[in-house]
Amino acid sequence: MRELYELTTLAFPLLSASEVAKAVRDWVAMPDAVGTLLGCWRTEIGPLGRLLMLRRFDDSGALQRERHRALSSANPFNAGGVITALEMDSYMPFPFLPPARAASHDAIYEFRTYKLKPGGLAPTLAGWEAAIAPARDYTAHLVINMYALDGPPRITHVWEFENLAQRQSLRTAAYAAGIWPPKGGPENILEAVSVIALPESG
User: Fold this and answer.
1) Residue 152 C-beta-side C-alpha neighbours within 13 Å
2) Is-same-fold flag (4-93; 108-199)?
3) How far apart (Å, rounded) are the C-alpha atoms in residues 79 and 49?
4) CATH code that applies to domain 108-199
């Protein structure tokens, strides 16, 4: 079975990003913690006052143990006194993509979540698999794409770019060439949300 991912979103008062990031990194470094931290990001464009954390788990048992550790704690992520909301979403990676790589501190990141029509995942997967190689100049910047295992049908893909200008240039070229977006993808999207985030060292 493939690895699993958890995308955690912590909301907090503005100006508390560094405090929350440090608390989160201490939490995932505790002796009883499991999973691999791939990055923490503070939102820069989109809903502000959010920290996004992506972790990889070897199997569902490890993910569930770590989820239980947070849910049963009076001080989840060592930030219970600061955070105002907490979401933890479980994901399976697209089967034809490599595992997600760790975040670089010299990049910007885009988190795109698409809510899908019922039954829309299968054609979305097929379209993405066919489009990855032809659009490789653009898709080389894809960190991961994954589909949710809980909640409404949806996918979340994470992209890494040097800056917003590079993102726009690559997307424009791929659209102009007719190799992006993936065939069958847009037809199955009910709602799309994009957030630009910056790595937070904590």
Assistant:
1) 11
2) yes
3) 14
4) 3.30.70.100
Question: What's the token pair of residue 72?
Answer: 């049963």
Distance CA 155, CA 145 (A): 7
What are the C-alpha distances in Å from 38 to residues 6, 43, 53, 160, 191?
10, 16, 8, 13, 26
Q: How many CA atoms lie within 13 A of 27 on its CB side?
A: 24
Alpha-carbon distances of 88 from 7, 16, 128, 144, 177, rounded to whole Å: 6, 20, 25, 17, 37
pLDDT one-digit tens code per residue, 66-111: 999 999 999 999 999 999 999 999 999 999 999 999 999 899 999 9
Residue 121 structure tokens: 């995942």
Domain coordinates in residue numbering, the chain: 4-93, 108-199
Cα-based torsion angle of the residue sequence 198, 158, 104, 169 in order, rounded to the nearest 10 degrees: -80
CATH number of 4-93: 3.30.70.100
- Contact residues for 35 (Cβ-Cβ < 8 A; gap 6+): 6, 28, 55, 56, 57, 62, 63, 66
- Assigned token pair, 158: 């994470």
pLDDT < 50 positions in the chain: none
